[in-house]
Amino acid sequence: MTFSKAVALAMGCAALAAGTVALAASAGDVISARQANFKEMNKAMKASFGELKQAAPSSDVFKANANALASAAAKVASGFPNGTGPESGAKTQALPAIWEKPDEFRADADKLVKAAQTYQQAAASGNLDATKAALMQVGGACKGCHDSFRAKDN
Ligand code: HEC
After folding, report:
1. What is the 3-state secondary structure (H, E, C) of 46-86?
2. 45 CA closest ligand 1 atom index
3. Tens of pLDDT along 42-83?
């Protein structure tokens, strides 16, 4: 075997090993990570609505929370790989419908991404009415998906 072939082979093995580690990440870890991501979004929503109630709301606060929401929203769709539903035995409020109707779930996730972008634009514009409207839209996107794909508190 030539040296370069041996190196290529060794690199292939390393790649394979990395893949195995990713596969071995337990369903519980994936579920915890997506739940933590949702908690981040919840925090950003609470902070945003809290700021709306201030006498003189700060556009910097809206901007920061809109950015946090947008980056978390982008991670939602990929947080539900096969095998991370209730059948995994881990504690989750994810309903089987997520994997039965993947297109609808993806559409709901996309709605959130778009709404978060609208919120970012509104926050950047400094227009309070637009910010308020965008926040309502984000809230609607959260609720829309929860109604179809998240189990009620259990
Ligand atoms: C595309 C669907 C979808 C969208 C959009 C969505 N959620 Fe969720 N959310 C879920 C699902 C499914 C779960 C259950 C996850 C689990 O337990 O594995 C969940 C769980 C949560 C949780 C509980 C996390 C925990 O600690 O267990 C919170 C809080 C939450 N979402 C807030 C939000 C907020 C706020 C938004 C909007 C900014 C939002 N979600 C948008 C589907 C969605």
Report:
1. HHHHHHHCCCCCCHHHHHHHHHHHHHHHHHHHHHCCCCCCH
2. 35
3. 999 999 999 999 999 999 999 999 999 999 999 999 999 999
Q: How far is the CA of 87 from the centre of ligand 1 (A)?
A: 18
Report in angstroms the alpha-carbon separations of 106 from 29, 36, 100, 109: 21, 19, 12, 5
Which residues make Cβ contacts (< 8 Å) with residue 141, sequence separation at least 6?
108, 111, 112, 114, 115
Does domain 27-149 fall under CATH 3.30.300.30? My reply is: no
What is the domain partition of the chain in residue ranges? 27-149
Using DSSP, state whether 96 is helix, strand or coil: coil
Taking a C-beta distance cutoff of 8 angstroms, is the pair 69, 138 a contact? yes
Confidence of residue 108 (pLDDT cuts 50, 70, 90): very high
- State the pLDDT at residue 20: 43
The residue written with tokens 């035995």 in the block is 89
Q: Is the CB of 112 under 6 A from ligand 1?
A: yes
Whole-structure pTM value: 0.87
